Automatic annotation (TrEMBL):
EC number(s) from the headed UniProt entry: 3.6.1.66
Gene: rdgB
Record-listed substrate binding positions: 7-12, 67, 149-152, 172, 177-178
Major enzyme class: hydrolase
Binding positions (Mg(2+)): 66
Organism name: Alicyclobacillus sendaiensis PA2
Domain of life assignment: Bacteria
Subunit annotation: Homodimer.
Record's protein name: dITP/XTP pyrophosphatase
Cofactor(s) of this protein: Mg(2+)
Family under the similarity heading: Belongs to the HAM1 NTPase family.
Length: 198
């Protein structure tokens, strides 16, 4: 089965492809499509918006994710604005720097946090499936590691001293919010010839 991911971020497509392990053929969005709205107040609302928006532009089913880091001591920031925390078009470094400043302004070196992931699969004008998952851990005020992307240098999952950015892809997939969501999605995904896809 071929599914189009609602992103042109090659890091994200590669990470999802690794997690899917060949059970689904993933393709990035075609270039030139307009940007989907992301005006929801939750990860699930944003994923649903993106999935339905792009499903109207491509023939194959669309998989959209919305994921991010939630830090309760910061009032839930960066939350649904994780990718845009330091402003529209901000890169990972700018977002990380802003988060570090926010933590230090509260006088904390590390704080409880979680990564959340919502996945929505849509075809044409219909949602086929929705799943959500999260991984709890700590966010730190100093980055470590060279792997991963986003806030991975700042986050260690519960029971681990290493950050996501210090783990191999296989190690990270044992813990990550995306891997948990994909495993649930795969367990519930209709067969390629099921009527849900029509």
């Amino acid at each position: 089965m071929r599914i189009v991911m609602a992103t042109q971020n090659p890091h994200k497509v590669r990470e999802f492809a690794e997690i899917f392990g060949g059970r689904v053929e993933l393709a990035p969005l075609p270039s030139g499509l307009p940007k989907a709205p992301e005006t929801g107040e939750t990860f699930l609302e944003n994923a649903r918006q993106k999935a339905l928006f792009y499903a109207a532009h491509v023939e194959d089913p669309v998989l959209a994710d919305d994921s991010g880091l939630v830090v309760p001591v910061l009032g839930g920031e960066p939350g649904v604005r994780s990718a845009r925390y330091a402003g529209e078009g901000a890169d990972d470094r700018a977002n990380i720097d802003k988060l570090i400043r926010a933590l230090r302004s509260k006088g904390v070196r590390e704080a409880e946090a979680w990564f959340a992931c919502a996945l929505v699969v849509a075809r044409k004008d219909r949602v086929i499936m929705e799943v959500e998952a999260r991984v709890d851990g700590l966010v730190h005020d100093e980055p470590r590691g060279d792997g991963g992307f986003g806030y991975d240098p700042l986050f260690s999952p519960r029971g681990e001293s290493r950050r996501f950015a210090e783990m191999s892809a296989e190690e990270k997939h044992r813990f990550s919010h995306r891997a948990r969501a994909v495993r649930e999605l795969l367990a519930r995904l209709p067969a390629p010839d099921a009527t849900e896809w029509v």
